[in-house]
Amino acid sequence: MGYVKRTALAIVAATAVLAAPAQAGEVIVVGGGHSERVFDPAVPTRAEVALSVPGRRATASGVRARASTKSGRRAVYAALRRQLRRKSIKRAAYRRWRATYVRSARTLRRLSGARASQLRYVLTSVESLALRGRLGATRMPVAFLQLARNRQYWPRQAYPGSGDQVSFRGSEILFQYFPGEGLQLHPLSTFKKANHLHGFCERREPSCDEAALRRILDEMTALAVKRGRRFIAWEYLFHFGGGTPPWMSGMAQATGIQALGRAAQLLGEPKYAKTARRALGAFTTRPPTGVRTTGPRGGVHYLQYSFAPRLYIFNAFLQSLIGLFDFDRVVGDDRARSLFDQAEPEARREVPLSDVGDWSLYSYAGSESNRDYHELLREFLQSMCTRRLGPIYCEYARKYRGYQVDPPEVTYEGPAVATEDTPAALRFSVSKLSAVQVTVRRPDGRAVFDRLGTFRRGTGSFTWTPQGPSTFTVRVAAKELRTGLEKRDSDSAEIQVENQPG
Asked: What 8-state DSSP symbol labels residue 435?
């Protein structure tokens, strides 16, 4: 049972609505010379797998694809011959990958505009790897597969939107479109899909597809790259957030280890656990090769991005720990448990640093989470809580849920007395980021002052100059801004305006 049947089941479950299930992701499926958008319950949503670096472009680095060069072409051919001579690749693979490169270059010459730019970026990325001596035997499968898929897509298929996920019939792995950088293999999305497939089977749901689970993990095993001397990794091969390819993600790595361990237990396949063990070295190796670093509280921290050693992303760190913990729990692995134990104390010390009093930070000393990343952090905190890994995770999971669902609290702070023709600061306090409106009315109900502004948690004020003595009513109303829900609060008080003295 493949993605088509899984999608059909999802549509049936939706009953009377032409929408995907809440947990289904949209994917462009390419096959037979055409493509179609479908909702697959195994495909993660965009929010689950979005890559982000605060203060930088969320989709691409702005690096423009250079033109293919004679030196680049020679470097690709030389890299292939070198690995063939060393017997690191077989002659059939050599011929297939060389043909992929040649045909992609020919296809590129027939394209123009934006479509040509996408394929050019991927083609010249392969050349760049070769020129820098980075196109080794274990990196060739993913580099040339990515090139082949882009060659297959760009001449005829519907132009995707930024962040669209793409799969190809007969394969379970997921690519994502990054404008200017073509379709890029997305290890995090693909391993999350594997975890969803595992969940369907573990719960014995109709969407269970053991063959698809085997296929996706076999495909990803074949695309693992030997990184450094000690471990394998699933890499990203495009420029992103200041990082130069190839780079890796601790979150994606741990999710892969988690998915492989779960499948090893479910399917009775020790080979998947063996692959996962080969990936553990990422968490013992310093960046930029691995993801192990010292966190802001002095303990061991696992990075989201191997190219960003000082970017401590809270949700990614927790998911890395969950992946290591789950792998040990399902297959029994002392090394994974040791790696978890080494870093979990740092996580406990870091979690309070993510709290700004009414919302969460995305990263240490960084910007606030958007709605999706706040929810993702809350989910990971709850996962740590459910696994009984410490009361602090339960505490902050509850607190962050409260930040999402509790209405704002607004209080008028004064003054109670003002003087005519003299500016008065109408002060208030608000418990969370809100749109605050202050309205002053005369005894007959007519508004004489009405102002609206955005205020963060804390105190604020509007200045009003009363025009004559009377008793006025001040109403302060607040609407919470982050969740998009209609959550409001208000407070009222009287203010006595007196004559000018003398």
From this structure: E
One DSSP character per residue, 449-490 reads EEEEEEE-SEEEEEEE---S-EEEEEEEEEEE-SS-S--EEE
Please state, in angstroms and as integers, the Cα–Cα distance from residue 238 to each residue in 59, 248, 274, following that order. Answer: 11, 11, 28
Which pair of tokens denotes residue 372?
């999706």
**Six-digit token pair at 389?**
């890994």
Query: How far apart are the C-alpha atoms of 261 and 497, rounded to whole Å?
Result: 72
For residue 467, the enclosing domain spans: 410-498
CA distances from 272 to 275, 377, 412 (A): 5, 28, 61
pLDDT 10s digits, 184-231: 999 999 999 999 999 999 999 998 999 999 999 999 999 999 997 889
Tell me: do 361 and 415 sit in the same domain: no
Give residue 52's pLDDT band: very low, low, confident or very high (50, 70, 90).
confident
Residue 64 domain flag: no
Task: Pull the structure tokens for residue 432.
Answer: 């969370």
Query: Could you tell me if 213 and 194 are in contact, meaning their C-beta atoms sit under 8 angstroms apart?
Result: yes
- End-of-domain residue from the set 405, 431, 446: 405
Helix, strand, or coil (residue 196): helix
Give the predicted TM-score (pTM) of the model: 0.88
| Statement to judge: residues 349 and 452 lie in one domain | no
Q: Would you give the DSSP letter of residue 482?
A: S
328 and 366 fall within a common domain: yes
Rounded to whole angstroms, the Cα distance separating 501 from 418 reads: 12
Regarding beta strands 458-464 and 300-302, do their DSSP bridges make them parallel or antiparallel, or are they unpaired? unpaired
Same domain? For 401 and 417 the reply is no
Residue 204 sits in the same domain as residue 305: yes
- Residue pointed to by tokens 């109670």: 416
> In angstroms, rounded to a whole number, what is the distance separating the alpha carbons of residues 38 and 31?
13
Give which of 301, 223, 296, 207 is closest to 256, Cα–Cα: 223
For residues 460 and 322, state if they share a domain: no
Strand 470-480 relative to strand 488-498, pairing: antiparallel
Q: Is residue 8's pLDDT more than 60?
A: no
Residues in the chain: 502
Measured between alpha carbons, how far apart are the two ends of the chain, in Å? Answer: 90
> Which residues, listed in sequence order, are joined to residue 225 by a DSSP beta bridge?
233
Domain boundary among 353, 386, 405: 405
pLDDT at 276: 98
Residue 367: give its domain's CATH number. 1.50.10.20
Domain count, the chain: 2
